């Protein structure tokens, strides 16, 4: 089948123990059902504290869920378990771009070493093959081979974003998860990144899950939109459907506030 | 009559060995009761202009300007006491990073109450004045959209989230009822609903109280929905300025066009998943600025003449500086 990922009954609970005269804080995420096809783009939208970033982190497995199951390529993972060394496939198949891509990079080592690390930990390639692969990936995201020897501070914002993207795709994943990849970027760099992702999706057949506040980009990129509120998926569906006929009050609020910003002449 | 009038502002930064021109002959005017947008990417010197206006400059920055005046008074020849008075009463600034711009050692309530000018405090006894301060603070907070004032007034800056901090900065700016509000990227990282709310507040204040706003941002969607005029900045040079409607409809400078094209929300003819038009390359750093027109190496229309800095040309209210502007064939 074309389905690369299926999530069922994913639940995460955060509760602080009840203390004297303090209400217990409870945050409950899920249960979440989700399925992603090959080459599909899914956008997660919602207000702050809706649990979007948490969901993204749970999908890649950096945070263990309390219960639920994630199927990747018809391989089942119990999401409640902390990942064991055996689950290498999983980190190969799903990769993440973090919110602040520049801060998520080690400033003390070169780009080449940054990209070498996932290879060293997850594959059995020897040094020559590694270097070959790194250089190919750098070219693929639109950088030069020479950038192998650059440090983080020598790169501009857009280039750093490209390195983050290179690090994510170097293991040839099936799914890419990104937490607000466009938020910190300037308009012209942002459209370059959007183009790059579109092109990579076409070439590699990547499925792409991303979180964004910028509904213009969501509308442009996504096939499917998920709307979250208070840890629940309140609405999901095709992008055009969601944008034209929002059903849930939360979705309506988001879409209306977006459309009130869009100049009327362009809507027509 | 322009309230804030800046002509040919040049800001140079000493880097030890050489001087870098971070701003190169920038002109900017804000008329009374208009919303002017100042647009540019990061590193274009938007925030430098803000700090030049507010007078908060480090000692190794040097300002020269043909004219920099506030309601007819020159800001450059003013004594620092007068300058402070202008900044306190007439101009309010919302700085870029709210959490770091707030005093970490005082609660938000104390800081907000401190910025209320004495004339607005009613009552003659200290307890009456204290009550009056409190109620002014709370009503301003409600205005900017903070509902749980009790919780946040007694909080310290490190305890709040960024969007609350941003709203607090805006409340602190509005509480002294200024004539000009300078908002440096107030909507950065905000979710759409909060952003719309804030923009509505700005528009309302502009209409009811004739508050002039200098809106510094690169969020074109927000700008297009509220501002009347726009100035576009690239690498410390003013590229184009004029009426918002004219700029949107018929940008003359290639950079303005690229900027407008980069927002997919402006185009409904764009099919989903198509590639967006972009400028090649990235924004140059201050140490490696190209000579002449600084857009030169990235510009699709660049020719040999572009190594000479273009002069500002003017058609009605529309200023642009480009040797080979777009849309000129039709004229």
UniProtKB/TrEMBL annotation, chain A:
Its main location: membrane. It comes from the Bacteria. Residues 5-255 form the ABC transporter domain. It is a peripheral membrane protein. The keyword GTP-binding does not apply. It holds the Pfam family ABC_tran. SMART domains: AAA. It is found in: Cell inner membrane. Keywords: ATP-binding, Cell inner membrane, Cell membrane, Membrane, Nucleotide-binding, Transport. GO terms for molecular function: ATP binding; ATP hydrolysis activity. One of its GO terms (cellular component) is plasma membrane. One of its GO terms (biological process) is transmembrane transport. InterPro entries: AAA+_ATPase, ABC_transp_ATP-bind, ABC_transporter-like_ATP-bd, P-loop_NTPase. Belongs to the ABC transporter superfamily. This is ATP-binding cassette domain-containing protein. The lineage of its organism: Bacteria, Pseudomonadati, Pseudomonadota, Gammaproteobacteria, Alteromonadales.
Automatic annotation (TrEMBL), chain B:
Keywords: ATP-binding, Cell inner membrane, Cell membrane, Membrane, Nucleotide-binding, Transport. Coiled coil: none annotated. GO terms for molecular function: ATP binding; ATP hydrolysis activity. Its main location: membrane. Pfam families: ABC_tran (PF00005), oligo_HPY (PF08352). Residues 4-260 form the ABC transporter domain. The keyword Zinc does not apply. One of its GO terms (cellular component) is plasma membrane. One of its GO terms (biological process) is peptide transport. It is a peripheral membrane protein. It is found in: Cell inner membrane. Belongs to the ABC transporter superfamily. This is ATP-binding cassette domain-containing protein.
